[in-house]
Design brief:
Layout: E1 16-19, H1 29-32, H2 34-39, E2 43-48, H3 60-69, E3 74-79, H4 87-93, E4 95-101, H5 108-118, E5 121-126, E6 144-148, H6 164-177, E7 182-186, H7 191-200, E8 204-207, H8 209-212, H9 217-228
Parallel strand pairs: 1-8, 2-3, 3-4, 4-5, 5-6, 6-7, 7-8
Helix pairs in contact: 3-4
The structure holds D-xylitol-5-phosphate and zinc ion.
D-xylitol-5-phosphate (DX5) binds near residues 23, 46, 152, 155 and 188.
Length: about 230
């Protein structure tokens, strides 16, 4: 019998903040997550298979360790070609929300239903070159839409300003759907690009490098939360 993982919050008008552990210091993980744990809403964990993206990251064992090191709900971002193989292992490792990519091998509907049937929340993501219209039909099935603001695969890249109109369009589509769906942005988010993204309609910010390399992460996260509350 699978246990239900801690659910994430539903959108309620506030902007949520999700540090990406790809940029955390794994030699002292608990310490590195201290400020995230204190002030953030979720922890974002990037799963890369070396095929869908040209990089490798974490397996389920690491997600279990992250879960032990933090009290935050875990938002798993699956950048893999074959999500089917990974949904249950990452759910069992502690993911409360699992986001898959529209561009992964076909079966989006099936994967969404699988994640839902386990009791986790469901996210769907698109890469910078995928038009937002492609995912319109899935809006009725998901809890979170992730617009990538860099080509997925690596932390520390530059925010792609040309994704702003897409964020705006996604916000309009979500509003028209009448459903409460988080609009998440991921890639190159810092206080400046966060302001641009939230201005275009995003309400969930993933931040890797800017947060974990900050000399004052506590101040950074508090000022971001204050700006957007
Ligand atoms: C990129 C990942 C991101 C990454 C963000 O493929 O999906 O979550 O960790 O890192 P920054 O904020 O450094 O761009
Ligand atoms: Zn990510």
């Amino acid at each position: 019998m699978l246990r239900l993982n801690k659910k994430i919050l539903k959108p309620c008008g506030n902007v949520s903040f999700s540090p990406s552990v790809l940029s955390a210091d794994f030699s002292c993980l608990k310490k590195s997550l201290h400020f995230a744990d204190k002030y953030a809403d979720w922890l974002h964990v990037d799963i890369m298979d070396g095929h869908f993206v040209p990089n490798l990251s974490f397996g389920p064992h690491i997600v279990k360790c992250v879960k032990k090191a933090s009290k935050l709900p875990i938002d798993v971002h699956l950048m893999v070609s074959y999500p089917e193989d990974f949904i249950i292992p990452f759910y069992e490792a502690g993911a409360g929300l699992i986001t898959l990519h529209y561009e992964s091998k076909s079966g989006t509907c099936k994967y969404i239903k699988k994640i839902r049937s386990l009791g986790a929340q469901v996210g769907l993501s698109i890469k910078p070159n995928t038009p937002v219209s492609k995912i319109a039909k899935y809006l009725k099935l998901i809890d979170l839409l992730l617009i990538m603001t860099v080509e997925p695969g690596f932390g520390g890249q530059k925010f792609m300003v040309n994704q702003i109109p897409k964020i705006r369009q996604a916000r309009e589509m979500i509003n028209e759907s009448g459903r409460k769906i988080w609009l998440q942005v991921d890639g190159g988010i810092n206080p400046q690009t966060a302001t641009k993204s939230v201005g275009a309609g995003a309400d969930s910010l993933v931040m890797g490098n800017a947060f974990f390399s900050s000399s004052n992460p506590s101040k950074l996260i508090r000022s971001i939360k204050k700006t957007f509350s």
